[in-house]
Amino acid sequence: MLWPFNHFRKPRVPARSTIETIYGMIVTQAREPLFYRDLGVPDTVNGRFDLLLMHLWLVLRRLKSVEGGVELSQALFDHFCIDMDDNLREMGVGDLTVPKRMQAFGEAFYGRTAAYDLALTDGEGALAESFCKNILNGQHLDKARELAAYAREAMTVLGQADLAALTKGAWQFPAPQAAGTPA
């Protein structure tokens, strides 16, 4: 029997294990050495953060279009924030400074994701230019083009994942490719 007031309940929160699985996939992919060695991403705290944001953006962008995606997206973003907070504290950032740094992380996240979303509507080279500015410190547009090609391939892979696979983390990011390397 359907309970007539089910629509008044809080939305179903995705399982913690699912969030950890998907977030772990994002972190693992963002740590892929080829991004730093061959695609010009600076192997620094900022470079790693920017690449993590790019992968998080790719996943959150896809989740917007699936049933239950809003709750999963929010839980994934919350997990990201907790991870960033934990990392700051682990690096020795003081309790009074953590909120300011978290605010900066939030601004970076929203600024970059807005720029990447806008770039997708601005033509073929816009995403590469946005990656060049935000990830590669305004250098190496050729590498940014490769990074944009990778991001588009990741969007395709995520777009092909069915609802069950997507919401359970049963998909994989494509392997990044260095220039001149067959896919």
State the end-to-end distance: 52 Å
Q: How much helix, percentage-wise, in residues?
A: 55-70%
| Beta-strand percentage range | under 5%
Principal-axes geometry comes out as: globular
Q: What is the alpha-carbon Rg in Å?
A: 18 Å
Q: Which structural class best describes the helix and strand composition?
A: mainly alpha
Main beta sheet: strand number and arrangement? none
Q: Write down the secondary-structure element order.
A: HHHHHHHH
In DSSP terms, counting alpha (H) and pi (I) runs of 4 or more, how many helices? 8
| Strand runs, count | 0
| Uncertain stretches | none
Q: Quick check: average pLDDT?
A: 86
Give a concise summary.
The protein is an all-alpha fold and 183 residues long. It has helices spanning 16-30, 33-37, 45-63, 69-90, 98-121, 126-134, 141-160, 163-168.
What do you see in this structure?
This protein has 183 residues and is an all-alpha fold. The protein contains eight helices and no strands. The model has no long low-confidence stretch (mean pLDDT 86). Helix 1 crosses helix 4 (69-90) and helix 3 (45-63) runs antiparallel to helix 4 (69-90). The protein starts with 15 loop residues before the first helix and ends in a 15-residue tail after the last helix. It has helices at 16-30, 33-37, 45-63, 69-90, 98-121, 126-134, 141-160, 163-168.
